[in-house]
Write a structure and sequence with these properties.
Structural class of chain A: alpha+beta
Number of strands of chain B: 17
Distance between the termini of chain B: 120 Å
Strand content of chain B: 5-15%
Radius of gyration of chain A: 16 Å
Membrane topology (chain B): Peripheral membrane protein
Main location (chain B): membrane
Number of strands of chain A: 7
Structural class of chain B: alpha+beta
Oligomer: heterodimer
Number of helices of chain A: 5
Strand order of the largest sheet of chain A: 2-1-5-4-3
Radius of gyration of chain B: 42 Å
Largest interface: A-B, 76 and 82 residues
Subunit structure (chain B): Adaptor protein complex 2 (AP-2) is a heterotetramer composed of two large adaptins (alpha-type subunit AP2A1 or AP2A2 and beta-type subunit AP2B1), a medium adaptin (mu-type subunit AP2M1) and a small adaptin (sigma-type subunit AP2S1).
Keywords (chain B): Cell membrane, Coated pit, Endocytosis, Membrane, Protein transport, Transport
Number of helices of chain B: 43
InterPro entries (chain B): Adaptor_Complx_Large_Subunit, AP2_complex_asu, Clathrin/coatomer_adapt-like_N, Clathrin_a-adaptin_app_sub_C, Clathrin_a/b/g-adaptin_app_Ig
Largest sheet of chain A: 5 strands, antiparallel
Amino acid sequence: MIKAILIFNNHGKPRLSKFYEHYSEDTEQQIIRETFHLVSKRDENVCNFLEGGMLIGGSDYKLIYRHYATLYFVFCVDSSESELGILDLIQVFVETLDKCFENVCELDLIFHVDKVHNILAEMVMGGMVLETNMNEIIMQVDAQNKMEKSEVSWTPPVPCMCMT
Amino acid sequence: MPAVSKGDGMRGLAVFISDIRNCKSKEAEIKRINKELANIRSKFKGDKALDGYSKKKYVCKLLFIFLLGHDIDFGHMEAVNLLSSNKYTEKQIGYLFISVLVNSNSELIRLINNAIKNDLSSRNPTFMCLALHCIANVGSREMAEAFASEIPRILVAGDTMDSVKQSAALCLLRLYKTSPDLVLMGEWTSRVVHLLNDQHMGVVTAAISLITCLSQKNPDEFKTCVSLAVSRLSRIVSSASTDLQDYTYYFVPAPWLSCKLLRLLQCYPPPEDGAVKGRLVECLETILNKAQEPPKSKKVQHSNAKNAILFEAISLIIHYDSEPNLLVRACNQLGQFLQHRETNLRYLALESMCTLASSEFSHEAVKTHIETVINALKTERDVSVRQRAADLLYAMCDRSNAKQIVAEMLSYLETADYSIREEMVLKVAILAEKYAVDYSWYVDTILNLIRIAGDYVSEEVWYRVIQIVINRDDVQGYAAKTVFEALQAPACHENMVKVGGYILGEFGNLIAGDPRSSPLVQFNLLHSKFHLCSVPTRALLLSAYIKFINLFPETKATIQEVLRCDSQIRNSDVELQQRAVEYLKLSSIASTDVLATVLEEMPPFPERESSILAKLKKKKGPGAISVTELEDSKREGGELNGGSDRGPDTAAMSASNASTPSPSADLLGIRSAAPINAAPAGAGSLLVDVFSEAGPAAPSTAVNDDGFLRFVCKNNGVLFENQLLQIGIKSEYRQNLGRMYLFYGNKTSVQFASFTTNVSCPGELQLNLNVQTKQVEPLVEGGAQIQQVLNIECLTDFSDAPLLNIKFRYGGALQNLTLKLPVTINKFFQPTEMASHDFFQRWKQLSQPQQEAQKIFKANHSMDTEVLKAKLLGLGTALLDNVDPNPENFVCAGVIQTKSQQVGCLLRLEPNAQAQMYRLTLRCSKDSVSQRLCELLAQQF
């Protein structure tokens, strides 16, 4: 089972956190910090697996992560999951985000946190994997977007923003 | 076209996020957030009803704020309101907020349940999925009560859309996990299992998680899933990489589903149905074969996916543990990965090998990789991988490689990462104990452990070494010597001081003979560490000091002076002060034998499961150490500890710690008991005599054979006697069998503790003689006598005598005594009467030179005829009258009965009264018997 999915940037700023088990808000923030601390100090080229921090259950759980440019994608899983399988899943997740956002970058995750949650929800539900086929996932997301478009067509257009 | 166009969405939200991002400081960010929270709060509380879009925007802002790590304590109601909206986007944000922010205890659950109920019955698949997601995310008991019966219906209904089925499967799984009592599968079981055959791979993917979980809990009800899983797996494995279209991931068909199918099969034993099993073995072989094929893509994703399946297949092979062929192939494959350039693969290979090491088919194969694994431990840059290497070394360790592995782990400890040191220390301690061939190696290893990683040596580890030393007589002297040497290091760890204090306090006497480690030197060494130690260690040292007073009376004055000084007797710590005061008083008022009783050596610890193993188990969590490993180590432990299967425990340790007189109540008890103990005349001085004679520093281990010769010609009497103990013997023999009664009498008024006796037949004797006995009671009360019966069987003739070793504790000192048991070959004589003519005829028949043994010797005892006759009769032979022409001479005849043969013996003894000499001649059908009898008898007259 996947216990938590965390995305944070190189500075430890959380960009997405999804817990499939209940923790208090405080603990969740501490877990994010602890996980960042564990993952960020690791060199490139080392393996993608490490034991979980104490807060999330210690050595009974594994952190499986990938580092893409400015972002860390971390899945905290128990022993029932295949490590390499989860690595692939992270890749599917990122490729899906990339397709949905067209060259996804950190800003997309910041400004469309709801969308990211929706995409994730098409892949993982209650800590278990729902779908691994990227086309199927994108199809669902597309369908949602169409509905959204039809509903929000009347809202004023968003002016161009300068983001630096 | 991208699915989400940038710039879409809510302007207010985007502006807010930009603002936050532009904040230069944390304070500015908090200020901006508080402003926004106040704004949203006022909007929610305002008179004007908000439209759906505004609600959605504000809820989105709250979500964002929450993600930044700020508490959100309002907005829940607005989110719940969004659930009942007909607009997808509003409903979706509402559900999102609830999934992220509402915990299962929320009071809002009832309202949320209502909205979910509506959406589930809406027949709109998108809404149904949202509702199912929400149930799976929150998963509270209230939700289980409301929906547990509804969801299986949705899952198996014929008209349910695939995407809804997927969500329903995982939703049901979540409810089953939180409230298994509410999810009744009964009627649904078979239809759920058959989801494995569903045409839509997504449905199978979701369903398999559900089926795996249900199978783990109810394996019998779900066992039909095995054959379905095998056939599904077989179809995937044998398909071409294009067959499964979208489920093919970087040229690997459905890797995720394959892994999950292999995991599901790990819930069950190998299939019983031959056809199913054959098909499965074929699948596993195909997977192993594919691993050897050249990759279809250079991308890491391709090899990841392929190897994910491979590792699961290997796990299944290890789980079955019944196909030696596959196990060895798996081991070879993992061996290749051990040196792979991908760190991930090295990591996983080490991990899988750990489980492989426990299989009897592959344990040896795993061991061949020891050098690679040791190298990984030394050179891997990645601590995760090094840790797996350490785990694997631990798993592959057995008697043959224990010394190498323990040495490598010890040297790794010097540079090991702090995070894993404690676990490493535990593992080294366990291996050292489990595979200790000799206990000096064990003691060395643990002391090294304390020296290298003292901070990480938990109490369990140093308790354990003390328990073992106390229980093993043969290592006590060595331990005392080694710990004494270790303490001489200028800076030694406090744990070393603890072990040193304890061991020298108990066994310092064993090395006190050497002037370099004389009592005072020992004491000064310990005391030089005293001031650097924490309170508990100081308390332990004080106990060691009082034990010194008992062991070495000459240190009494020095130690009393130390106890008397203000820093002890007025110490601000209550425990230290109490110990100092009580020990001082005890040492000055108690007589020597009272002191010896109070400060008696620790009794052996009762053996239970190693406390270290328990600690490691606790550390790793349940299930981290397999049951077999535990049983294994228990068995090993028993073997090591000399079959007495002892296993100490922290409680025993602290209990015995408490037996050193620290509470004042103890002291009072001693004082009242003292006169009684001292009452028997000279008991005190007797004790001193014993010490000065045998000396507690060097328990006598030399074999005492004084009594032995007195019993050649008699069967009953006192074998041994000193001031403490008397040993009497009664014995009877018939044919080749004998029975011996040993009587151990405690001559003192004080109890003998840990009284053990051991009869051994050294060397060849064990082939000649069979001696059986039962253990005696370990306590011999003062003045009491206990009895032990030996059953003896003579298998063939013999020359040596069995040894009787007796150990017991009297006062502070261990008494150790070894005696020769008077079991001699002549005991198995049967007398043979014969006439003069027969005698000389046989005498001539035994005329070969080896058959005769002769000795001329001086008389040691009276040459009185009657005395000599009595002795010769006691020998067991028949004394023949009127055979020898010279009436002064004695001739005897007998047959020695052994199990394997009978040995006829003739004897002639010719006394010469003037010269006070004898000539003894023996002729036996077996030469060795002649020799032995001649030796024995030459000392009898």
